[in-house]
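If you are new to this repository, start here. Below is one unmodified record pulled from the training split, so you can see the exact layout before writing a loader.
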Amino acid sequence: MTDTKIRIVKAIKNGTFNYENYLNGGTYYGTPILTQPLHCSYGQIGYIVFIEDKPEIKYDWEKKELRVKSGINFDKVEDEAEMEKDN
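And here is the target side for that same chain:
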């Protein structure tokens, strides 16, 4: 997993990642990212983070589910070492 992915995952888990800042694109620690809201029939339920134009991270705040492109669920991952071990 790249450093950018690790940083974004940690920020999401800590509640400090503001996806709204990247709706029109931007850079996160020097890496181009873009976010896109996830919607269902009754409203927004989360967002997707695109890193270098690839959908890499999905956060569904309704289900409290965080997924990275590899398909591994990081809801229970506590630190960076565990994330690296899983990939």
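Two things worth knowing about this chain: The longest strand covers residues 31-40. The chain has one domain: 3-81.
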